[in-house]
């Protein structure tokens, strides 16, 4: 059946055209109910025992997705009109709804009501789109009831009073979400309900458990029409709010309109904005730009936290190319940096948060509703008030809470309980919190994903051997060098001497795309995860283990499929030729960095494999020096290595990660392969190649480094990466650790390297500052990075091995993929660091320790130190919380010193100090590693 709709459209040029839209209607769309005697039961999703089938309206899905994900809610019909509306309004909820509908363990069925001849409704004259959609939902509910008869009740769930009234008048069973949940007889489910925002101000104020005095705490947000007008007139400035990780009362908004970051100081000026919200900001009068309290003192005393010392961290700096410093700003009245206040929220970034409830007495009466304050583990998040009927079971648990609303009359936002993670302090629970807080996808791989894998045991087939596009390189002496215990080996090397005295050097990368095909559930899952995540005690894989540890892993003594980059090089490491080929290899050795280094260092060993290692190392050193001569930076980071108990998974020892020549050798050839591949794919696909760039840091971003260097009599030239690299090489002091400290500080001033689509930027913007490379990409780790999977497909297409997938013709989609890769890559880094912090706490909980540290940042009430032995950084306080003004100490900003007023004692940046480290818990359920001066 065909339904057509025509209308007249007028172009800008005045030309009038008639547009006809055709809408096809069918009578063979199945209802999805197992009890139905008319429809095909083989496609049924709803259970045969269901006494009630639920039909949801759009707002119920948008607001109550946490409830819907609970297994107690099942036998749900999701109408296509609802699915489309949700997709248009909230992609995050849409994705969660689609996951429910595709989960074979859940009874959710998508019904195409918009294409069924009995449920499609035409628009009526004068009817709004919202009213038309509500009518379509009622018509579909009515059809389901008549279609299935009296054997089952079809219940429309809607909180819309008018929609519910019309439904009842039309003979449809209809209830609110709350009344339906109450009918289930599971009181705990009521905790999952999102309360309408209008009810927020009528709730008891949790902080003192007395009725609200309705005192106005925050300014009302400006309406969007006023915000839009203000942005156009330059009165307001738009940007993303970044709350300081160590001081939740201090935030920054990077504003393109003024080319600087605007400081937002205090909860009042933040005006209910959360970290990562897109906000509209109004500048404060200029005479207030430097009259705030010292930025290192927290403004709001109701949160009794040590937030008044603000350590620096590269993680806190918003990574834009705007002029800026890291988010831990110096208190420098001379800078006159702009201060502002939030006047409106343009886009919320609320999501679920992990934490625990603030300890409180139990209310009288079992099962009664208790008001409680939720405290997030993330200090940047304000306390959230919730209502719960299960307080006794939650007080000692890590739980997840979602935010529902934040009224301007309420000190805290209101939210609801989502689920319990586990016992507070349990290592597995706290590791799960790390994953949830950083939005790491750790769910088990679905049956659909696993169905994409080849059966085990897998081996190279005769078809692979006879493939004209794949070279058999099993005769080569290939080897891999990785961290100890590595199972997901995705790169291997070879180096053989040619008759002309040159070397043939190969980088062989696991041919993941031979098993991961575009558009499959396996590919979709890998694209969503973006990268593997490495925690201290485990790995969260991007791809299923049969691929990562067996089929694709380039293990020793087994034939594996690879994608190879092979160069002919002179003994001076000059590249004569480069070729790319799909290949079959058989690794002769899988070595750890320590084993490879020991081979190279043992003069008694002269076997062929050791000779290959030494030749490669010689070439790598030349390549490295040449790269540094071009301006590549040799930076440093405080990487921590744990020794983990194999049975308990507790840390046994902790120390700085040691970099050997073997590490640098492998890194050099991986960099070279990535550069060669970047050139190849860009030559063939100039508009759709996936590349990686590292934007040049601005002078303002490097200012903290320059100030620190100047304080110790060191001049750093930052006019180019080459100038900075040379300056760092000459930054030598009496302290053997001095140079590494300077390099660590330099690393923190850098911008974030990012993936991008080549068609989105001009050629000069492709530059990778840190590597001093005009072109760069990621090709060498497809087992653990989806970016490399994309690059493998581009490389294969450039060699006419495979066709380029159709997605590469869709630039907006490629940009979206790049954005997700950057998001996932950064989250994986943050999760890794959070895992290190967690295991550091576990390690030092029973091991109070004294150690030597270096001062890396001066503050008005203390300083930040770095502990080289353990790779740990943290604050050391010189003044107590009561001494807000700094007490008897004052800061000499130019000299980067903090001195006693009487001049008897002073501490300066990069000075060595002795500290004591122990785990304390000043706030319930918030343990921290406290550093104190000895």
UniProtKB/TrEMBL annotation:
Residues 470-801 form the RNB domain. Residues 297-335 are annotated as: Disordered. Signal peptide: none annotated. It is found in: Nucleus. GO terms for biological process: nuclear mRNA surveillance of mRNA 3'-end processing; rRNA catabolic process; rRNA processing. It holds the Pfam family OB_Dis3. One of its GO terms (molecular function) is 3'-5'-RNA exonuclease activity. InterPro entries: Dis3_CSD2, NA-bd_OB-fold, PIN-like_dom_sf, PIN_dom, RNase_II/R, RNase_II/R_CS, RNR_Ribonuclease, Rrp44_CSD1. Gene3D superfamilies: 2.40.50.690, 2.40.50.700, 5'-nuclease, Nucleic acid-binding proteins. One of its GO terms (cellular component) is cytoplasmic exosome (RNase complex). Keywords: Exonuclease, Exosome, Hydrolase, Magnesium, Nuclease, Nucleus, RNA-binding, rRNA processing. Residues 321-334 have a biased composition (Polar residues). SUPFAM superfamilies: Nucleic acid-binding proteins, PIN domain-like. Its cofactor is Mg(2+). Residues 52-165 form the PIN domain. It comes from the Eukaryota. Belongs to the RNR ribonuclease family. This is Exosome complex exonuclease.
């Amino acid at each position: 059946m065909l339904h057509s709709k025509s209308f007249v459209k007028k172009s800008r040029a005045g030309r009038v055209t008639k547009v006809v839209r055709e809408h096809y209607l069918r009578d063979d769309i199945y209802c999805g109910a197992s009890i139905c005697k008319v429809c095909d039961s083989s496609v049924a999703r709803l259970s045969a025992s269901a006494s009630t089938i639920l039909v949801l309206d759009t707002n119920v899905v948008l607001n109550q997705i946490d409830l819907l994900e609970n297994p107690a809610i099942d036998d749900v019909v999701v109408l296509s009109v609802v699915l489309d509306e949700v997709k248009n309004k909230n992609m995050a909820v849409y994705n969660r709804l689609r996951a429910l509908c595709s989960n074979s363990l859940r009874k959710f069925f998508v019904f195409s009501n918009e294409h069924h001849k009995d449920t499609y409704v035409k628009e009526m004259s004068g009817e709004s789109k919202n009213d038309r959609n509500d009518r379509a939902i009622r018509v579909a509910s009515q059809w389901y009831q008549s279609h299935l008869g009296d054997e089952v009740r079809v219940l429309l769930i809607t909180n819309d009073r008018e929609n519910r009234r019309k439904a009842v008048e039309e003979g449809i069973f209809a209830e609110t979400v709350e009344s339906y949940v109450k009918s289930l007889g599971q009181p705990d489910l009521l905790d999952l309900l999102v309360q309408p925002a209008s009810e927020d101000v009528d709730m008891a104020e949790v902080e003192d458990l007395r009725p609200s005095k309705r005192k106005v705490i925050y300014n009302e947000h400006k309406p969007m029409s006023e915000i839009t007008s203000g942005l156009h007139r330059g009165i307001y400035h738009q940007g993303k709010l970044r709350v300081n990780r160590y001081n939740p009362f201090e935030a920054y908004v990077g504003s393109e309109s003024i080319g600087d970051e605007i400081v937002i100081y205090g909860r009042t000026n933040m005006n209910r904005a959360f970290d990562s919200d897109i906000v509209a900001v109004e500048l404060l009068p200029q005479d207030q730009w430097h009259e705030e309290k010292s930025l290192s003192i927290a403004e709001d005393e109701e949160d009794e936290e040590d937030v008044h010392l603000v350590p620096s961290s590269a993680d806190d700096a918003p990574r834009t190319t705007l002029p800026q410093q890291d988010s831990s700003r110096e208190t420098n009245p001379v800078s006159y940096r702009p201060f502002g206040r939030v006047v409106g929220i343009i886009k919320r970034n609320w999501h679920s948060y992990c934490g625990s409830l603030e300890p409180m007495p139990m209310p009288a009466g079992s099962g009664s509703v208790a008001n409680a304050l939720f405290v997030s583990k993330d200090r940047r998040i304000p306390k959230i008030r919730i209502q719960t009927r299960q307080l006794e079971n939650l007080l000692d648990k890590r739980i997840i809470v979602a935010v529902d609303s934040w009224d301007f009359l309420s000190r805290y936002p209101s939210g609801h309980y989502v689920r319990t993670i586990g016992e507070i302090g349990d290592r597995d629970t706290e590791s799960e919190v790390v994953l949830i807080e950083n939005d790491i996808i750790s769910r088990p791989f679905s049956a659909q994903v696993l169905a994409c894998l080849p059966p085990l045991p897998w081996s190279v087939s005769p078809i692979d051997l006879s493939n004209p596009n794949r070279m058999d390189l099993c005769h080569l002496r290939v080897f891999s060098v990785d961290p100890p215990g590595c199972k997901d080996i995705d790169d291997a090397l070879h180096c053989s001497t040619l008759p002309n005295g040159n070397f043939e050097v190969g980088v062989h990368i696991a041919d993941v795309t031979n098993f991961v095909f575009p558009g499959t559930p396996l590919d979709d899952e890998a694209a969503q995860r973006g990268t593997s995540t490495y925690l201290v005690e485990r790995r969260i894989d991007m791809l299923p283990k049969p691929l990562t540890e067996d089929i694709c892993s380039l293990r020793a003594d087994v034939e594996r499929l690879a994608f190879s980059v092979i160069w002919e090089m002179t003994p001076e490491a000059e590249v004569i030729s480069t070729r790319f080929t799909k290949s079959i290899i058989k690794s002769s050795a899988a070595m750890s960095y320590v084993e490879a280094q020991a081979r190279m260092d043992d003069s008694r060993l002269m076997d062929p494999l050791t000779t290959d290692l030494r030749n490669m190392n010689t070439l790598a050193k030349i390549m490295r020096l040449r790269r540094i001569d071009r301006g590549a930076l040799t930076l440093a980071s405080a990487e921590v290595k744990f020794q983990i108990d194999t049975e308990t998974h507790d840390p046994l020892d902790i120390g700085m990660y040691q970099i050997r020549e073997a590490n640098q050798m492998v890194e050099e050839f991986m960099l070279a392969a990535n550069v060669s591949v970047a050139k190849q794919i860009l030559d063939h696909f100039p508009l759709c190649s996936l590349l990686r760039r590292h934007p040049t840091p601005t002078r303002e971003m490097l200012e903290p480094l320059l100030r620190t260097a100047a304080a110790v009599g060191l001049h750093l030239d930052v006019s180019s990466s080459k100038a900075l690299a040379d300056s760092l090489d000459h930054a030598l002091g009496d302290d053997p650790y001095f140079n590494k400290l300077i390099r660590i500080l330099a690393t923190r001033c850098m911008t974030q390297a990012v993936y991008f689509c080549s068609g989105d930027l001009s050629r000069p913007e492709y530059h990778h500052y840190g590597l001093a490379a005009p072109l760069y990409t990621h090709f060498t780790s497809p087992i653990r990075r989806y970016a490399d999977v994309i690059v493998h497909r581009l490389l294969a297409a450039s060699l006419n091995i495979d066709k380029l997938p159709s997605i590469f013709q869709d630039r907006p989609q490629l940009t979206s993929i790049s954005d997700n890769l950057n998001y996932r890559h950064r989250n994986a880094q943050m999760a890794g660091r959070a895992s290190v912090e967690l295991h550091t706490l576990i390690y030092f909980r029973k091991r109070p320790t004294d150690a030597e540290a270096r001062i890396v940042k001066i503050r008005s009430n203390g300083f930040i130190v770095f502990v080289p032995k353990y790779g740990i950084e943290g604050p050391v306080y010189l003044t107590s919380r009561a001494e807000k003004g700094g007490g008897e100490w004052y800061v000499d900003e130019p000299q980067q010193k903090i001195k006693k007023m009487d001049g008897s004692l002073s501490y300066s940046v990069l000075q060595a100090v002795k500290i004591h480290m122990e785990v304390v818990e000043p706030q319930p359920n918030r343990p921290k590693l406290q550093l104190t001066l000895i």
